[in-house]
Amino acid sequence: MSTIKTLLVDDEYLALNLLETFIKDVPGLEVVAKAKSAVAALDVLNEQPVDLLFLDIQMPTLSGVNMLKTLKHPPVTIFTTAYSEYAIQAFELNVVDYLVKPFPFERFLQAVNKAKEQLRLRQPAPPIAAAINSNNHFITAKVDGKIVKLFYDDILFVEGLKEYVRFICKSGKYVTLESLKNLEEQLPADRFLRVHKSYIVSKEKVQSVLGNMLEINANKIPISRGKREEVIGEIFGVGSMGASSFEESENED
């Protein structure tokens, strides 16, 4: 990313000035605001984007810990405090580092470098895209910082994990930042099928169906309620009557 927009929150004037002095010596960091209370900091966060938050813990009215708990999507956060006993609680809140006052510039820089790495990981991956050239039977995805090819023939199925998707392939497992809905639009419909809110399967890799579960190698993939007939028709090439006979034969068993 370009400039890291930084918010400083501390009820001590000298502490705010020291942080600002340190930040001036680090290229790529910009102080967008300073706040002497957590309440004032919340106002800043509501008004403008902030990438990195330096946050004191012990403050009047609202502590830094409780302020952070109110944020649904907090910035990358570094706690700055005179008290070491809050460290465990801080890391439970996914704080990237915990600076105990007074801290030297070297320790500050170490925390900033951790924050930069966390911000890099938060950067949205380029959208998964189908290859433009029809001769290329693959899509591309950002995995562990690398752009990789995922060939259609290698993909067994894809599992949705909230903001991420996990490709289960013959060659291994790959996780990338993407929604299953977007991926469904990118993968060729003649080869892949959304069978459940959390799963897309490769039609040709499905080996069998048992009840409401598809079997791919040793994996069992659920079928959404109400989609069983459609899924069987798409994957096994049978119409509605054929799909019904699948169900009847299973009931006889």
General description of the model:
- With 253 residues, the protein is of the alpha/beta class.
- The chain has 8 helices and 16 strands.
- It has a 5-stranded parallel β-sheet. A 5-stranded antiparallel β-sheet has the order 11-10-9-13-12, with helices on one face.
- A hairpin with a 2-residue loop joins β14 and β15 (213-216).
- It starts with a strand and ends with a helix.
- 28% of the residues are buried.
- The model is unreliable at 130-134 (pLDDT under 50).
Strand content: 25-35%
Based on CA atoms alone, the radius of gyration comes out at 25 Å
Percent helix, as a range, is 25-40%
Total helical segments: 8
Model regions low in confidence, pLDDT < 50 over at least 5 residues: 130-134
Question: What is the spatial order of strands in the main beta sheet?
Answer: 2-1-3-4-5
Main sheet makeup: 5 strands, parallel
What order do the SSEs take from the amino end to the carboxyl end, as H and E? EHEHEHEHEHEEEEEEHEEEEEHH
* CATH 4th-level superfamily of the largest domain: Response regulator
CATH architecture of the largest domain: 3-Layer(aba) Sandwich
Molecular shape: elongated
Q: What's the structural blueprint in terms of helices and strands?
A:
Layout (H helix, E strand, L loop, with lengths): L3 E6 L3 H12 L4 E7 L2 H10 L4 E5 L7 H7 L5 E6 L5 H6 L4 E4 L4 H18 L6 E2 L7 E6 L2 E6 L3 E7 L2 E6 L2 E6 L2 H7 L5 E5 L2 E4 L5 E3 L2 E4 L2 E4 L5 H9 L3 H13 L1
Parallel strand pairs: 1-2, 1-3, 3-4, 4-5
Antiparallel strand pairs: 6-7, 7-8, 9-10, 9-13, 10-11, 12-13, 14-15, 15-16
Helix pairs in contact: 7-8
